[in-house]
Specification:
UDP N-Acetylglucosamine Acyltransferase, domain 1, alpha/beta, 4 helices, flat, twelve-stranded mixed β-sheet, homotrimer, Udp-n-acetylmuramoylalanyl-d-glutamate--2,6- Diaminopimelate Ligase, Chain: A, domain 1
Chain lengths: 344, 344, 344
């Protein structure tokens, strides 16, 4: 499909500057954009590209002041990144969605499937499963017995949902994520063996949650492991049994949270962070990548290091660490001087 | 099902204190327990909940001395956590198990399947596979050619077992674990290319091993990668080719062990630990979370840091690191004083 | 199959020393080799095993000088590891390969499948897919719509390839790897919520790439995430949206690369390394295991630490860190001396 600059400006409530009739059929990054494409300038670091891009249309912030002439038509909007997000979404939605129940799927006669659901080839839907409207289950996905899934949720190929899990509405679960495997609980025996502690709880995922590819969320020993509304988990994250993650907390790839820790709302957690078990992390906490959290953290803290400490303090200490050799030389010199002074 | 306090006390060889006829139908955590549920006090940190819980029955240690009156019936046992584990297991076992061979599975006519086995929908069982008694293979699991699996082992949905692997009895392998993919072996070529080194060994997993969701265990280049009896691996762990992990060693989520390292018995390894290749880790070693092990470790060591060092020393050094600024100020001051002294 | 020492020496262009008619049927590691097997000495650390091994044939470097008598026949070659790799490959190839299109697979009538392809049971091949010659798709693998895959590429069981991805020739993708899941992109909203940014780009994997089990490579927001020819990725690695990895770069298990970072050619990246977003890593860079890279790195650098610094400097600083207590004692003593000096 093609759109004119005028049509796009109307859609985004933006202002057109240049030829309003120029037409585009694709979106592209500013450093790769060619004629017939539309691009955007959201990150100031890319500003120099705007003077050389061949893009027919460039989306810019409303107060953008060009320092040189620009070839294409500008569309000025209040929030270029938000506007771009809207265009990407429209583009995505223009692709037809998968629908219908494949004859090659296994759907238990004791499952309840609401209208307009897609269940792909070789998907497995167990006894007592309840699927809401517009749920999309891609091929090879496993939905264990008595799992409930809310409206408009998508499970990509190879997702595994163990029995009794609960998923809310408008969630996206990416391929090969595993929801509800056993928590890691073993009782030590006298002969160095361990005895498995049966894990009879479940996992509850609320609404608007995104879970990345390969991420694993263990079921609770007793009670529930809970992922609150709006949480976004990236790929290959491990969430232990009985963990609770608060609303709108965002976690980057490869983080691990050990059993029974509670994480607050609106936290931002960098990649490869490890959080020990039985801790309480407050709201609005920011944790730098690779941090190792071994004690509870209060609201609003910004932490870094392994074990974790206040981030600004870590950075200062790390500068000294980096220059450790110089510091030791200063001590060496002090010792030399003292030696001389003492010898007087 | 409902049970009376007396019945449960008899089962656990415990002593009933309070109404022995009170009945419960569920287990719950002490902070969430309601009437008609049974709870437990195993961790002293939760003691204050026992005075407010609505649980009808509370499992406590035999020498527990309440400081205030408690509403429900107490059952005193020697080991509350062990007793809880037993109850959880009974609860779990009360659920009917999956049985039978699904007509929607692929089972090679050249596979040997013992009695009482479950093979779920869309499972794949290759040529020459040998499955023991009571083996349970959930939907979508792949068992490559000539894999042997011992009695009472469970493979959850989406497990991948490459050809020639050997699994013992009473193992549990969680969803999307991958056993026997190629080791990461490449021979550098003169033009910066790498040539793949074929990996013709296998993986041997002994008895009573638990392997978490998404964990990957590579086959040996030659010979075997070996996971000894009683080992417990959490989720998203990586075990390289030709690694050997000793009996009853426990490893938390997201650890990685590079090729050819040997790990001893009864080790406890925290989350996100990395162990380099070709090392020997002794028996009874404890490794703190996020440690980076780059040299061999003797029996009984407790280590921490990246690269790893003795844990108590790491903790001391880290306290100084944390207060690095103060230390540098002390050096600054010393220099000031010295300067003055010298100027006399 | 059995081979004589002479036959093997001819094959490897090596020189036979000892009985040329001795026959072997298997390869084994030097510390495990028995009669009738052939072994090798590639790593000098294993030299002492050569005097006690029962192997019938030992592959050694052409200039190897034994210090004691050796039981078996030696075959001297220029590059024992390369020769071994060749034998392993021959051994591997002696196993018959899977062929044919399973009737239990789903293959879209709108897919193009070239000759001599294997598509296993319960594999899913979507609309518009193009598979080259000799492509092997193991059971349970998902190939989304409009994916193109080059000749001689193998996808093991449970691989997930989202729509529009491009894979080159002679690639190997191990079980449960996920190619093309959504990048982790969310636009913050005023109420602490996040709005998903649709990810409309794709993943391009060039030729001769190996991707480990459970590794995840996200699609680009716009444009492509690109894995260049010859790249080798180990297991459980996370590659973010719009990342580019240069030719012949090798990455060990559990590394993570955040969105939009560009990595050069011929880099060697250790296990559990984290690389932040929007960075440029040059060519021939070496990164030690567990390093945290938070700023761009120039060609040829060797780095270590979290945050990363020059490796040799890190090692020096870490020695001081390890001995921090001694250093603080020196400062204590200096202060004592100064105090005395001042009191004069």
């Amino acid at each position: 499909m093609e759109f004119s600059a005028r049509e796009i400006a109307d859609l985004l409530q933006g202002v057109c500057e240049g030829d309003p009739d120029i037409r585009v059929s694709q979106l592209a990054k500013i450093e790769e954009a060619t004629k017939g494409t539309m691009t955007f300038l959201a990150n100031p670091a890319y500003t120099n590209h705007i003077y050389s891009t061949e893009a027919s249309i460039v989306l810019v912030k409303d107060d953008f002041q060009p320092e040189k002439p620009i070839q294409g038509t500008l569309i000025r909007v209040k929030d270029p990144y938000g506007a771009l997000a809207r265009l990407l979404e429209l583009y995505k939605k223009s692709n037809p969605e998968k629908t219908g129940l494949s004859k090659l799927a296994f759907i238990s006669p004791r499952a309840q499937i609401a209208e307009n659901t897609y269940i792909g080839e070789f998907a497995y839907v167990g006894d007592g499963v309840v699927l809401g409207k517009n749920v999309r289950v891609y091929p090879h996905t496993y939905i264990g017995d008595n799992v409930h899934i809310g409206d408009d949720t998508t499970l990509y190929s190879g997702v595994r949902i163990y029995e009794n899990s609960r998923l809310g509405a408008r969630c996206t679960i990416h391929s090969n994520a595993v929801i509800g495997a056993d928590g890691f609980g073993f009782a030590p025996q006298t002969d160095n063996n361990y005895k498995k502690v049966a894990q009879i709880g479940n996992v509850i995922i609320e609404d608007n949650v995104e879970i990345g590819a390969g991420t694993t969320i263990d079921r609770a020993t007793l009670g529930s492991t809970i992922i609150r509304s709006g949480v976004k988990l990236d790929n290959l994250i491990q969430i232990g049994h009985n963990v609770v993650i608060g609303e709108n907390t965002v976690m980057a790839a490869q983080c691990g949270v050990a059993g029974s820790s509670k994480i607050g709302k609106n936290c931002m957690i960098g990649g490869q962070v490890g959080i020990s078990g039985h801790l309480t992390i407050g709201n609005d906490v920011k944790i730098a990548a690779q941090t190792g959290v071994s004690s509870s953290i209060e609201d609003g803290q910004i932490i870094m290091g392994s074990p974790a400490m206040e981030a600004s303090q870590y950075k200062k200490s790390f500068v000294y660490f980096r220059n450790f050799e110089k510091l030791v030389k200063r001590i060496d010199e002090l010792e030399q001087v003292i030696k001389k002074l003492k010898s007087y």
